[in-house]
Amino acid sequence: MDKEKDHEVEWLEAQKIEISVDLLAAAKQHLLFLETVDRNRWLYDGPALEKAIYRYNACWLPLLVKYSESSSVSEGSLVPPLDCEWIWHCHRLNPVRYNSDCEQFYGRVLDNSGVLSSVDGNCKLKTEDLWKRLYPDEPYELDLDNIDLEDISEKSSALEKCTKYDLVSAVKRQSPFYYQVSRSHVNSDIFLQEAVARYKGFLYLIKMNRERSLKRFCVPTYDVDLIWHTHQLHPVSYCDDMVKLIGKVLEHDDTDSDRGKGKKLDTGFSKTTAQWEETFGTRYWKAGAMHRGKTPVPVTNSPYASDVLVKDPTAKDDFQNLIQFPEVEVVEVLLEIIGVRNLPDGHKGKVSVMFSKTQPDSLFNAERRLTILSEVGEKQVATFQCEPTGELVFKLISCSPSKIPVSREPKNLGFASLSLKEFLFPVITQLSVEKWLELTPSKGSQTDTKPISLRVAVSFTPPVRSPSVLHMVQSRPSCKGSCFFPIIGKSRLAKSSTHIVDETQTEVITLQIRNSADGGILKDDQRQVMGVTDSGETRVLAVYTGSFWSLLDSKWSLKQINASTADNPLFEILGPRVVKIFSGRKLDYEPKHCANLRSDLDFMTLVEFSKQHPYGKTVGLVDMRFGSIEAKENWLLLPGIVSAFILHTVLKKGGSEGFNVTTKDIKEESKQTKLVAATENNVNANSTNVETQTAITAPKKGSGCGGGCSGECGNMVKAANASGCGSSCSGECGDMVKSAANASGCGSGCSGECGNMVKAANASGGGYGARCKAAKASGCGGGCGGGCGGGCGDMVKSVNASGCGGGCNGECGNMVKAA
Question: What is the pTM assigned to this prediction?
Fold first, then answer.
């Protein structure tokens, strides 16, 4: 108890640290700015970046120093051009260098007080007028069509006041950061409030180290790093706050990017984790704040202007209520079992904890095992996604000694539960909890001793909408591949009808393609997609016009694109939005290194292009092999279902139903992509990083999983010299990787460059239901708890590991065991 009070005192002391910036409001603006820059990726590299750096040195900084304290600007604020603000942003994120450059050239630190961001929608007329007077030959907004690199180089070399800091490299280091903090939960008030509090705790550790003359490289998680960056964007406040706290300006070292085991980032994160937990008695790793893996490869390097093609989205749509599909919310959970007390003699060192949910859902419906930190001396963490309902149930299991036959069941010493709803509804009260839970003894357990208690640490992300997953089930009893759900209800159409069912096996709608050969009133070569709802209503959902499919009374259309390479889209869905369909898994669905057994050619990714997302945003994924679609947004549900049904039906018939392209054509176009992917997988199998898997649906149950596996469990990889493994299985299940020594963890960190996602050495991944073996490895291990159901995260067991990346794109999670 005294130790717990000491932890509380330390935390309260940390919260007394004074920050002269409203970090919550500033972080929201920071995220908005990063989002805007990401929509203008010409700022990341190339001639436009070189021109932006010149304009920053030659125009913006002189304007700022000339007018920032001038009375002529007192009536309004300066608004920098976007390109100049981005370079200024990256310069300030090296606070020591920025301060020294400002002092050298201007005699003082140039602050952002009196400056408004270009993305806030503020009037720029005053600043534009000042700019034109100072720089009549240089337009206020960067002219992308008039960039002369030779001229820029010549003018830059002639500047008297120009930083020698390598701003090109600084931009390249900062560019990936937005991906790490771009998930929707990051922008919520409660997540940012806790991030601010954790940032103060982070600074408190640094202060302690300086007072004790300890040289430690502290590495932040991404929630802390976001707030740290935000603080640095206010140069004078950051300088004053840091000098007051530690006597100097705290350096932000973002130059280290080597995430290998034993390197600076790896050891720094391990030591930061240990110091945090020793000082505050709470967990450092946090749901939704861990490394997501590398930024996905873009589907295009040129922004797509789609506004000309977009139809009016406000037009009345009588198809909106044709199908009923309840929205489901999802949270990411990070779980760790810290300790056990009052454990009876004879059980020490033999116990573990099985955890599950009282209300299993489509995202998490299995029982998983975790070791206890105090018993084994190694950190093991589970991250997974689930619906924010019911309770987490924990059972303390005592394993049998090795001399007792394996057939004997492990002894259940008791159970306890923790309500998810208590913390998330009706108002989110907190996103982290760590407490002792007293166990209720199981039947037959001794009751004459003190009650056993477990110390459980759980963190959550705020609930967000879960993607909708729908499956195409053929009504033919002999169907193979896509019929992994029982037929629900009676077939209202012909025997070749396709039932669309959700994850609960509830029928949503029944579809059938009807053509002129069926008789009736259809013209020659005309085809229709007919739909029958659960209420019995029959509607024409799509009509083939001879060159494209017209969907939902011409509100949408599905067209084939003449793709010259496998990297280009094959189809497009046009309507109130513009969606292009690419072969393979792209962007958020990009396959990771434990997903090799499912061919990337089995999938098609739906990518929306808009003014807000000129480089594309994933909105859905179609599994062509098993016939399913995941839709991230409601507007895509009906046009997405109809389009996926047409593509799945047409491509299997060799293109005879309206498209020339076939599955064979797609595979031929993608041979080079497949060859490159195979080469990368061979290389990555022997590297030190494992990243995450993406998939959408499961094959036939029990495929490759071993005993008790429901078919939803995904890959099982047991590696001898492997490290951790992330996962991203669209809310289903991820990889299981058990590794021994020579493993490294994955912190998060400064500028988005630190942290590790670790790869299994000598291991190969796989799709759902696959079992992968590495060197000196076999089978599944015992991490499944007797049944690998959907919704499990990855299991990674490693020695001397640090940090943990919580699932790619927020979809699933990891189980990481680290020293």
Answer: 0.78
The token duo for 513 is: 């393609």
Looking at per-residue confidence, does 262 or 201 come out higher?
A: 201
How far apart, in Å, are the Cα atoms of 404 and each of 344, 361, 384, 407, 785? 19, 36, 34, 8, 19
Domain ranges in the chain are 45-174, 329-465, 468-669, 685-819
Q: Can you tell me the mean pLDDT for 570-586?
A: 93
CA 734 to chain centre: 14
- Mean pLDDT is lowest, of 262-266, 420-424, 525-529, 811-815, for 811-815
Residue 23 contacts residue 231 (beta carbons within 8 Å): yes
Residue 591, exposed/middle/buried by CB under 10 A (0-12, 13-18, 19+)?
buried
Residues 6+ apart with CB under 8 A from 28: 187, 192
Whether 804 contacts 749, CB under 8 Å: no
Q: What is the pLDDT of residues 366-414, one digit of tens each?
A: 889 999 998 888 889 999 999 988 899 999 998 755 444 444 567 888 9
Q: Report the candidate in 810, 806, 791 with the shortest Cα–Cα distance to residue 389.
A: 791
For residue 46, give the amino acid letter: G
Q: What is the pLDDT of residues 709-719, one digit of tens each?
A: 322 233 222 22
Rg (CA), the chain: 28
What does the alpha-carbon distance between residue 389 and residue 361 come to, in Å, rounded to a whole number? 9
Question: Would you call 336 helix, strand, or coil by DSSP?
Answer: strand
How many CB atoms neighbour CB 177 within 10 A? Answer: 22
- 329-465 — its CATH code? 2.60.40.150
